[in-house]
Design brief:
By secondary structure, this protein is mainly alpha-helical. 49% of the residues lie in helices and 6% in strands. Strands 1-2 form a two-stranded antiparallel sheet. The chain is elongated, with a radius of gyration of 21 Å. It starts with a strand and ends in a 12-residue tail after the last helix.
């Protein structure tokens, strides 16, 4: 909902008014947390679960360097 330059109000207003079908009055009464909850989960902030960790470990296995990991 925010970028390095602050809150992107046009995008949030489109999501609330057009996407969620809210009235302007209802949109402006929402807290940021309520709006985020109504918009659904953000796929950019998905937690890394067991399946994801297993995929990363398979793609990037640790390299064995002998008795010591120090290089």
């Amino acid at each position: 909902m925010t970028s390095g330059k602050g809150i992107n109000w046009p995008v949030l207003m489109r999501a609330g008014l057009n996407g969620l079908g809210m009235t302007p009055d209802a949109f402006w009464r929402l807290t940021p947390a309520e709006l985020q909850l109504m918009m659904g989960p953000s796929h950019a902030q998905v937690p890394l679960l067991n399946d994801g960790l297993a995929q990363l470990m398979a793609a990037y296995p640790d390299e064995k360097r002998g008795n010591c990991d120090a290089g």
